[in-house]
Design a protein that fits this description.
38% of the residues lie in helices and 16% in strands. The chain is α/β, with parallel strands linked by helices. The two termini are 42 Å apart.
Length: 310
Amino acid sequence: MSSRRVARSGGPDALLPPLSRRALLAGAGAALAAAVTGCGRSAASSPAALHVGAVPDQDPDVLQRLHGTVADAVSGALDLEVEYTPVTDYAAAVSLFRTGDLDLVWFGGLTGVQARLQTPGAEPVAQRDIDRAFTSVFVVNTGTGLAPSDDLTALAPLRFTYGSETSTSGRLMPAWFLREAGVDPQGFPGGPGFSGSHDATLALVASGSYQAGVLNSQVWRSRTEEGAVDPAVVRYAESPPYADYHWLLGPQAAARTGVPDLRDRLADFFTGLPPGDPVLELFGASAFVPARASDHDRIEEIGRDLGLVS
């Protein structure tokens, strides 16, 4: 099989020459049979393609470059057809993974737990070295007059925004650390906001729409190094560490792609990336390391405690 990445928006039928009436009828019958016996996929979707997705935690252009590069690299290394499919929100990533429309997804800690609990047989594949001890960064608008501090209680009277409602680094763990510091994580004036992504949080705090917010430390450092952080936004505090992002593989992916050892081959691919590889650079990591379900036991416990895991 040749290695290539395909676009989801176009179907293979667009490449076929005109057919006779008999051939059209035969093709329609085959398509119907495929639809009946398939696993929730449309007949136009290649049954051998590996469908890759990710939680939309950053700007769409950043995600397209990041996961498009991953799709190309996995395609070449495993000789598979690989397709990256953007999703609208965190909940959609979990839902599409559960239904089998996405096979391999880059989840945050909380969404990974949710997806694994809803999809029996799902297996963690790998995580970045930085995901073993990930952190969140609390930021404030300079208009607050707050200087960097470890005292999270100073944030309580401010208009505050999280990222996505099910983001690990943009909501779950910050809410936990706020509560541990004696701050009601839902008690901000007017209620907390939910920006939807880490980049959006930075923009909202910069504009003054919210006086403070929280985002993942990797995005904060990346945007700072790029000079993309508005001077009106300053770092206030950084959280204690916790386990976060990881690749999760669906239970039907191996059979559908015809690669029985798909999980092991993917793990070998990610953990075998050499220093300086474009994938590692785009992910802001020095290496990928093996991931296990037990790595996120604390995330599951906190998620249940905060009512985000049932």
